[in-house]
Structures are given as structure tokens and as C-alpha cells.
Amino acid sequence: MINAMGWRWWCVIQVLLLLGPFMASSHSIIRNLPGFSGDLPFKLESGYIGVGQEEEVQLFYLFVESQRNPSKDPILLWFVGGPGCSALSAFLFENGPVTIDRNSSGILPTLVLNPYAWTQVLNVMYIDLPVGTGFSYSQTQQGYYSNDTLWIENTYDFLQKWFIDHPEFVSNPFYIGGGSYSALPTVPLVKKVYEVGNKAGSSPLINIKGFVLASPFTDAFLDMNSRVAYAHQMSLISDELYESIKASCNGDYVNRIPNNTKCVSDYEAYSRLIRYININQILEPVCINTPDLKDRILLEDSSSEGILQSLLKVSNFWCRGYDHIRVNQWANNEDVRNALHIREGTKGEFLRCNKSLSYETNLQSVVDYHRDLTKTNLQCLVYCADLDLAIPHVGTQAWIKSLNLKIDDPWRAWFVDGQVAGYTQIYKNHDYFLTYVGVKGAGHVAQSYKPKEVLQMIERWFSYALI
């Protein structure tokens, strides 16, 4: 007589035996990273998994075991926005176990431990998605064509194979998360994983429990349209202009009608007023990013270190985007590529964000997917930054309100070190819970701006404690 757990493992073994000969996957344990002094005090795995019908698409990933209790702690698959931004961006600047020392100089940036790493309490998985991002590649030219739907299918294929290859993690609670654009494909992916795992007679390999969304791109119209209202809330535009543009455009600032001259002129006035505002964090300076300056710098010194030093010389202030040059500098180092076990000849220059992808955005809204998920027993965490104009929290709160969920815990402050870190509200529908959190003083994808506060929020939410 085989009990439920025994039956589950039997199914895993049978699938492994059937698929094993056909799986184009490989992984390695990394004990040292160039730029970091000594052995890594955490377990880091890198590898590739082939996806698609012929496994022509090879997805590169990093997996960091929890530094607390990897056999019991939840697994979080974390996506970076974009599309086209590498997982190394999150690994080094959002929630990974190490970060680049901003004060380091030279050819190879220095890595230091991240005191606010989520890997202190979670197993975290990072994937370079979609294909062409980071170190992921295709064995055929056709394989480089991708879209939101393929993102979902490729990730689901990846997860099935990864769990077959790592049966010791099958019983861990599993969560999917992402910030900015990546939230769009994340929600349908969650629905697919949940529905397949709950089909009658199935033996799920993925023990999904919920999902986490940071400054989530959710609805193309709603998110972009909310920028005008947010700009008015934050006193970036006048009351008079706001009332005029709201009336002349009838509240629709995305689908402006060309022959509506008043709407067009009002929108141009709004655009001029926010032109020199950093939309990711409205209080931070706008980074120098003009084409003529870039061309001049590239003529002088085309290396990442040269570009960075030139930017610092011509700028009177530090810009957050300068950190991203360090990612390219680190990842293009030959010793780093060898340490990460990057397959030779598969990728040329590494770009933190590859903006030349052959990628189609074929999902415009996932609000209906959210609505479907409210009928499940999953947990959802949505957090936004109050200084984010890229995806304003007012748009996020609007689509959450449209789900018509019951308020389980009304709007209140949450605290870190005795200080207000933001505001939160919890919604529910039977066994489904959605926790909304605003992070005070943060910018787009809050952990880059308020890492301590966001780590405490993450710890509390994953331990089912009140934020």
C-alpha cells in the first residue's frame, strides 16, 4: 500500500526515468565568485535547462539555497522586469546574497555580502528570460523570437524539468514573483501552474502556494493612464492643468484623438512638466543619458569602467543607473564567465538589459487572470513605491479595487525600527488573500531603494505574520 507521499515520489521517479535521456540540462555548484573574497557562505548553483519542442532554447539560471533551512524554507522564483533584463540585475542589486561595492574601482568590481538578502530566509531562483536575455540563448535563429505567451510556456517547461532534476525540493512551498514588466506574464504563469497541479488525478511536481508582485505592470491602459493622476497628486502638475486635461481628454490620456486639439495640447503641457523628472523615483536626479554624451564617451573609452568614470566626471551627482554599468563590467569578465559556467561561444557581449530582443508583447492586461486567481487558495503580495511614476500605485490600487474583494484588515501603517515604513491593507475572498503594501520613500521596484524595509516585509509575509 503506497501512501500519498509515496505515490508522489513514485510518479516523480517514473517521469524522471522517461524524460531523463531527453533532457538537455546541466548545473554546477559555485563555491567562489571573482570579486568576492574567500568561499561563498551560501550554496549557489548555476545551470542551463533546454525548453521548447526541440529544446533549442537554453535558459540560464541561478539558484541560491536559503541560508536558514533550505529543505523547509519556501522557494521563490524571481523575475526581473524588462523584458530583456538579466537575472544578474536582481541577484546583484535587488535581493540576492551579494552586491557590487559601489566604491570599488578597477577592471573587476568588488562583491560584498548583501545584509538585506532575501536568501537569508528563502531559496531564490533566478532565470534569464525571455530567450536572448542575459546568458540565455537559442540554438536556432527562429528560437530567438518570443512573446509573453512563450515566456509563460518556457517557464512552465523549465520548472517541470528543474523539479524533476531536484526532487529534494518538490515538497517545499513554491512562490513566483517579479517586478515591473515581468509581473504581466507572472500572473498567467501562476494560474497555469496552479490549475495543472490541481487537475484530478495529477501528481503535481510544483507545490505552489502564492505569488509576489513588485510595482507590477498589470494593465497597459490603466497603468500608463494613471501617471497623469499621480503627477497631480504629487504636485508635478497644477490643479488647473489637471482639471483641464481630465475634461478635454475625458480621462483617457493613452488613446488621445489627434483632432482633439485641446486634449493634445494639454497632454503636451503635462509632458513638458514631467520631462526632466526621474519617473522611477521622482525625488532622485535624472541620469545623464543623452545620445551625444554617450557617443562622445564611447569614442574616448569604450570599456565599462571608462564609461562609468567619464559619467562620474561630467556629472555633479551620483545616479542609480551608474550601478548597472558595473553589472556589465562584472559579467563580461572572462573569469566571471568561467566561474558561472557560461557555455563558451553561446553569447557575445553581456548586457544587463538587452533592448534588441525579437519580442512581442501580446498580453495587454492580466486583470482577468487576477480575478480568476481570487477563486483559489493562493496568497498574493502586491507592493508598490509611493515615489514611482513609472507604474504609479494609484493604478495598482484601482485594479485591486476592481476585483471586489472583501477588506480583511483595513488601511493602516506598518513599521520598521519603530518608524512608519508605509501603509498596507489586506483583502480576501474565502481562502484567497491579497496583501497590498505601500513602501514609503521608495522608487520603482522598492527593494533597490528600501532594502531593509522590504526584507522585513518579505520575512513577515512569508511567515504569515502581520506586516
Automatic annotation (TrEMBL):
Pfam families: Peptidase_S10. GO terms for biological process: proteolysis; secondary metabolic process. Residues 1-26 form the signal peptide. InterPro entries: AB_hydrolase_fold, Peptidase_S10. Keywords: Signal. The keyword Signal applies. GO terms for molecular function: acyltransferase activity, transferring groups other than amino-acyl groups; serine-type carboxypeptidase activity. Gene3D superfamilies: 3.40.50.12670, alpha/beta hydrolase. The keyword Signal applies. Belongs to the peptidase S10 family. This is Uncharacterized protein. It comes from Acacia crassicarpa. The lineage of its organism: Eukaryota, Viridiplantae, Streptophyta, Embryophyta, Tracheophyta.
